[in-house]
UniProtKB/TrEMBL annotation:
Name by which UniProt lists this protein: Aminotransferase class V-fold PLP-dependent enzyme
Needed cofactors: pyridoxal 5'-phosphate
Every Aminotransferase class V domain range: 5-361
Species this protein is from: Shewanella polaris
Source domain of life: Bacteria
UniProt cross-references to PROSITE patterns, sorted A to Z: AA_TRANSFER_CLASS_5
Length: 372
């Protein structure tokens, strides 16, 4: 059966079969709390959660897994840093391709605290122009590792090198699981990820990494199962950022996804060929990186002769192709790329797409725009 689901930038599908099996294992068999009780099932559950934390930390090259806290999603992780960071100069730099998970909390702080938000200098596709970056009196740099609009992969290691002592908050919602991330080597200060996209885990899972160089207050306060005699939050990690019962079933599923990641059924050549062939169609405009070496397996497009909504509907109605159409919760990115306010049609692949699926996608798009 063909895989016609190309909305993996929103959430990945399908998942490895072990993901639902692991969730069922927790719900139907294990079922105990995490980090709060002392009997066999509780020990087993706590062990599963910590094994997932360790494996995830290893995947991200985080040397101290206790600094990796589970969150409901990347948005929660981003808000945890953005809303509780100590802004000495009240100046934040962001890329022009940021998601509303970054821009809305920054807008809130601008209204409440007078935080100044400025865009990093960038090239036409949104790639940061390292040579033009000015970090004078900057408190924090926030950047999307891989754009959820055009798939641009930012040069994080090079950027961090010139930031010197200015901390960076890396939004890896799209990239984690798709692109190698090395927190230790890149000297990343804060990292936000989600589990349900390229990591192929279930929704309701994410994580926040905080460097030992920085201390920020948690977004939530509540029970942790540790130091319960005190009304203040424990200072230990990861407990400081894990108030309340976590999504244990989701963490079981994420752990299974990490242990059972499939090999990609399509080749890099097939993806590159898709982009080249679509770019050759006169009435199609592609939104991609200008450097294919910095291109994730996600891109957007539009037709000069069709509205994006009509074209996306035709792709689904006539060919079963499932996409994401509109502004992708990233109006700032679309404004920068001159695709606001209509937006674009987004295509995002997963390891479960074969070369045949990719070829079918191309032919479907070609037929739709040719018979409009």
């Amino acid at each position: 059966m063909m895989n016609l689901y190309f909305d993996n930038g929103a959430t990945s599908f399908p998942k490895p079969p072990q993901v639902s099996q692991a969730i069922a294992q927790y719900l139907d068999v294990d079922g105990a709390p995490y980090g709060r009780s002392f009997y066999e099932k509780a020990f087993k559950v706590s062990s599963e959660v910590e094994e997932c934390r360790d494996l995830l930390a290893g995947t991200l090259s985080i040397p101290n897994p206790e600094r990796l806290s589970f969150t409901p999603n990347a948005t929660f992780a981003l808000n945890s840093v953005i809303k509780n960071f100590n802004y000495k100069h009240k100046r934040v730099l962001v890329s022009p391709l940021e998601h509303n998970a970054v821009m809305r909390p920054l807008h809130y702080l601008k209204e409440k605290m007078g935080i100044e938000v400025e865009f990093l200098p960038a090239r036409k596709d949104g790639t940061i122009d390292i040579d033009k970056v000015n970090i004078n009196k900057c408190d924090l740099v926030i950047i999307s590792h891989m754009s959820n609009v055009n798939g641009v992969i930012q040069p994080i290691k090079a950027l961090k090198h010139i930031l010197e002592d200015v901390p960076i908050l890396l939004d890896a919602a799209q990239s984690a699981g798709h692109i190698a991330i090395n927190v230790e080597d890149w000297d990343i200060d804060f990292l936000a990820i989600t589990g349900h996209k390229s990591l192929l885990g279930p929704t309701g899972t994410g994580a926040l990494y905080t460097s030992p160089k920085y201390t920020i207050e948690p977004l939530l306060h509540g029970g942790t199962g540790s130091h319960s005699e005190f009304l203040s939050m424990p200072e230990d990690y990861p407990d400081l950022f894990e108030a309340g019962t976590p999504n244990i079933a989701g963490i079981y599923g994420l752990h299974a996804a990490l242990k059972n990641r499939p090999q990609s059924l399509h080749s890099q050549d097939a993806f590159n060929t898709l982009l080249n062939k679509l770019a050759a169609i006169d009435i199609i405009k592609l939104y991609v990186s200008t450097d294919r070496n910095n291109q994730g397996e996600l891109f957007s497009f539009k037709s000069k002769d069709h509205s994006v909504s009509e074209l996306a509907f035709t792709l689904y109605k006539d060919f079963g192709i499932q996409t994401r159409v509109g502004l992708h919760c990233a109006p700032v990115a679309h404004s920068y790329l001159n695709s606001f306010p209509e937006g674009l049609i987004r295509i995002a692949l997963s390891p479960y797409h074969s070369d045949e699926d990719v070829d079918y996608l191309y032919n479907a798009i070609k037929r739709c725009v040719s018979h409009g």
